[in-house]
Design a protein that fits this description.
By secondary structure, the chain is an alpha/beta fold. The chain is built from eleven helices and 18 strands. It has a domain of 149 residues: 2-Layer Sandwich (D-Amino Acid Oxidase, Chain A, domain 2). Helix 2 links the parallel strand 1 and strand 2. Helix 2 runs parallel beside helix 7 and helix 3 crosses helix 10. The termini are far apart.
Length: 419
Amino acid sequence: MTARYSIFSLARHALGGHRGWPVAWRSPEPQPAYDVVIVGGGGHGLATAYYLALNHGPRRIAVLEKGWLGGGNTGRNTTIVRSDYRLPESADFMEFSLQLWEGLSQALNFNVMLSQRSYIDLAHSDGQLEDFMRRGNAMRLRGIDAELLDRAALERLVPPLDLSPEARFPVVGGLMQPRGGTARHDAVAWGYARAADGLGVDIVEDCEVTGIEVSDGRVSGVETSRGRIGADQVAISVAGNSSHVAALAGLRLPIETASVQAFVSEPVKPVLDRVVCFNAGMSYVSQTDKGEILLGGDSDPYNSYAQRGSITAIEETLVRAVAMFPFLSRLRMMRSWGGIGDISMDGLGIVGKTPVSGLYLNGGWGYSGFKATPAVGWTLAHTIAHDAPHELNAPFALARFERGALIDEAGIGPAPSLH
């Protein structure tokens, strides 16, 4: 009887158009003014609002989203979380983010489906393996987990991997972060939204910011598709559209924008319980909870704001993926999509103050945005509250490009492509 009731209950909820479901967050009308307005309702913007209300309240806070929550890059990425970075600035930031990830479901009382299945970078030459050894040693010196893998370890941990000497790019070893893995992207947005709403944050969807008011060098509010909203402080957190929105305040950013693609295969039985990255070129592979094989690759080799895939990038990524896992050649690809990546000159993000007083910026994360979500929210909230950076995001200031103080990080993934 219980199983029968569960089946009918599931069908009723599935076909009932969400009738009777509790509302996860309110849909308020925007108020005439707030203390803080955060432009962008993705993971970064929602996390910033949550930590600002949690750690630095009380404040009147609004998140303005031109579409729906998580409809931008938060819902268009490959969900990888890791902290296997070499330099102190990026390693400390990402390790703090990973530590927040590890307690996020409990903190938000919402399952973000963190799966620490490990992340493995493959080395294809002795020189590359030696470079991985240096990065792993730098990680371990900072208390971050890292394991250097030989071919025997890879054969044991990743059975489907082609380790034959006849491979076009033979695998000689790898670097593994056991605590790396994946999380559920939309759950992250929903969890932060519900928690922020519970702390009194107004989350306003379908509200596009069309102008940023600046008077005597200080921000005073924003113009939106739903009218003017006054604000003492404004934070821009609109991955993929940072240049456009910053230009509304007269700022020109040292970033470029390109489509970053991903795609999934038809579902298959469990075959891959790690995230594996092919470093002869760029192709990384994992398996989702639904059984799909998820693939990502390098950014398109030209600037674009298109949220769609291109045949060239799909072909290049698949060729590398099949070289890594030959069984993939027998699978059908089900769908592909593109996220819009704002890529800074060193491939890492910009988090902090701008030349306009009261205006703050978070953008330029390229490939690193999803994994940085909790740390971005925490440190940007601190920066807004104190009008001064947190020690972790201080190196990621916009002014570093003016000083030439770029963060030349080897563990980021694809190299920034200055087209």
